[in-house]
């Protein structure tokens, strides 16, 4: 034991010398080289937001910045590398963090001046945590909006601190094999809710005892994400005209909720106790149709690569263009740390301009992320034409609403409301009223204002 | 006869509890050889239907698994050894020396065990930031190198050592340094074993503090790395199970090394000698 402890102690002392030294600055040591070539012989990129690569950044002196991301590290690294190819004096350390805890650690790190990340990925639901540490983009906002129309919803005091690079929304995923088995064809893709009920019923199977053995449609464990946005089709916005209070207990949400409940209880196309997770039930071929956002494409590739699936857009009441089909959310461009040094911020601003002006970057972001490009000129890009989300909702994306950087209280409380209605027998009105009361208190505390009024057809 | 029946019943209950305790680990290990589709299948089987080692082969793709693993080994060993040493030292002083204020000092040590970590984490974070220790291993080692629990355990252990032994050593010419290192430490193997297992496990599984303090990917620890399998929208269960299976090996090895003396060490710490 003594020898063992002595050995360990000696090992620790030796390793401590190696492991503890260096401190936090070692990774900030630039690996870049001096750049003296102003004219790089490269073309100017972009339409309205343009990027002229033929200039020096940081006077060509080596400089390193950190860029914090929480996923798809390789994708972001390739973008950083493309920028570093143009400016070899710049080193961008792409640092991957777990999603869990990312927004706990990030606000702390942003207070660390030049030692913190200069660039960081943003999720709009955490805007309120990050805004105090963000530097506005040094790009003309009119140019930004001309290229990226959804940037208008991110204007704050005439500035843009972050915006969408890609848009995602919900759509229906259906199992093509079950579809064919039920005698349905491509011509049966529903355009109206009545048609939807009809095909869902054809896809629902029961055994001789009346027990469900296949669900036509399954929204279990996804009620809240489904219903938030469905209210637009039933005549209400999600938030009041001043954008401060929720309309979660309003007519639109009540009707949307009733409709979802009716799908199970009246039309029997699914059951709250059959396939308690919509996604896993779909993976197993147990449920024929599910509603999910664009991310589900990636989940299917990982978890159920053998499922032969197709997608269709959310139906409407009468098949005509509604006030809005549903809501969308954006994947956000990186934020710039206002506490970084001037040199770091100069590089970050230059990088953001490159990021937004380069079509190659934007196409890659939408391709790898399964998104609709926020840059309108890329809507018809051949590289994106075959992605499920572009094919399914690309034509109508202007008829989807971004409600704003909604705090998570909205989804959380509607999840509770859904479970109370489905599993605890609570009346729809009561459940939604409870949710609305809690949400409104939380919204007041978060100083939230909805962006619904910025929707192009808001006055309709 | 009645005694035999009771004993048999006790064994059966213990066996059942053992199976229930171990089953999740067995399930995790076996599931690490399944595809994600099979792991999430509604029809579950214990053994993989289509065994695959891809989850293990792909570990390095999610993050630098080997590096994180070695980083965790280094920190866990460093902290465990330091805690053992400081606990023995403090336990010896509090258990065997008589001086004014001893009980007050011990009271303070006990109080540190009663303060929840969540209360101290913010001031601790600020202190380490101000000291410029962010992103260094010192920030992971310093806050835990002295353990109230360890001191308590070792004080109880030290008190069970007869004073006559220490006096005999002194009479034979041993100085205090020699007495502590050559006589006392070897007599505390049981207590040291117990602390080693507890401390190694605590450091090995600690997530929040390393995550807050370490920024560089090259210095990050395995407990943080494991959370990278949890994405925003889905979890790579196969990868997570494979990584977790490997990550529990050091804990098992440490337990195997120290287990013989573990129970005796905990028992000795629980009663005053």
UniProtKB/TrEMBL annotation, chain A:
Pfam name, any one: SBP_bac_8
Tagged with keyword Membrane: no
UniProt keyword terms in alphabetical order: Signal, Transport
GO molecular function: maltose binding
Designated name of the protein: Extracellular solute-binding protein
Keyword Cytoplasm found: no
Organism: Candidatus Mediterraneibacter faecigallinarum
Lineage of the species this protein comes from: Bacteria, Bacillati, Bacillota, Clostridia, Lachnospirales
InterPro entries in UniProt: SBP
Signal peptide: 1-23
Gene Ontology annotations for the cellular component aspect, listed alphabetically: ATP-binding cassette (ABC) transporter complex, substrate-binding subunit-containing
Sequence similarity: Belongs to the bacterial solute-binding protein 1 family.
SUPFAM superfamilies in the cross-refs: Periplasmic binding protein-like II
GO biological process, one term: maltose transport
Taxonomy, superkingdom: Bacteria
Automatic annotation (TrEMBL), chain B:
UniProt keyword Transport, yes or no: yes
Family: Belongs to the binding-protein-dependent transport system permease family.
Transmembrane segments: 9-30, 68-92, 104-125, 137-154, 183-204, 237-258
Pfam families membership: BPD_transp_1
UniProt keywords, alphabetically: Cell membrane, Membrane, Transmembrane, Transmembrane helix, Transport
Entry membrane topology: Multi-pass membrane protein
Tagged with keyword GTP-binding: no
Any one GO biological process: transmembrane transport
InterPro entries xref list: MetI-like, MetI-like_sf
Protein's name according to its UniProt entry: Carbohydrate ABC transporter permease
Primary localization class, coarse: membrane
Subcellular location: Cell membrane
GO cellular component: plasma membrane
Domain ABC transmembrane type-1 stretches: 69-258
Classification via SUPFAM superfamilies: MetI-like (SSF161098)
